Amino acid sequence: xxxxxxxxxxxxxxxxxxxxxxxxxxxxxxxxxxxxxxxxxxxxxxxxxxxxxxxxxxxxxxxxxxxxxxxxxxxxxxxxxxxxxxxxxxxxxxxxxxxxxxxxxxxxxxxxxxxxxxxxxxxxxxxxxxxxxxxxxxxxxxxxxxxxxxxxxxxxxxxxxxxxxxxxxxxxxxxxxxxxxxxxxxxxxxxxxxxxxxxxxxxxxxxxxxxxxxxxxxxxxxxxxxxxxxxxxxxxxxxxxxxxxxxxxxxxxxxxxxxxxx
Length: 262
Prior knowledge:
26% of the residues lie in helices and 25% in strands.
């Protein structure tokens, strides 16, 4: 079932949160559909386990066969493993970092991706969907070495990929977060491990602080809504020590023979 994040003047943003079995082994993942004046872009479509339900759920808002673009923030399986099925079901093109563009054919049968992958340069850019000019923002090393986010200036929503992710029960994912302080505690462990280092966090914070952002919608967990909460999140990220900032010699030890993996 889709949750309308924005719907005005023939421009809609739909969030799908519940297409991965909460009781299963897979991590929860969000998918987003942006439609403007009859043209559509699907963000981070997910793996094979989401495809059928997403196709059906999308159809209530937009004909999947008419997709203009599929956007992949990076190349993790929960982002883009279902790509071959989207390429078969529509004439869509894939937007993905130039660092990952040549890896994409490994997801699909031979020849399926030929001429249908657009490699995004490191600087990002602007993509037109309908009448909307969507910004493709660099977010390198947050967490992938080739990583991008999408900012929609019409809805003022930043679709942030893994940055801002939270691991929550399904009923809480549908509740937008306005009080960020209590939410940050549950985000800390994920961001410390998955984000590469503070330097990237600082550069990202400086960049997005120049945008007018009403909400941040990550690829996992609940959206962050309201300028106060958004500002606090950006400040938190800018001060976050994570990834290689936290590594010590204890993280790089030859395994003890007793550390058996079975």
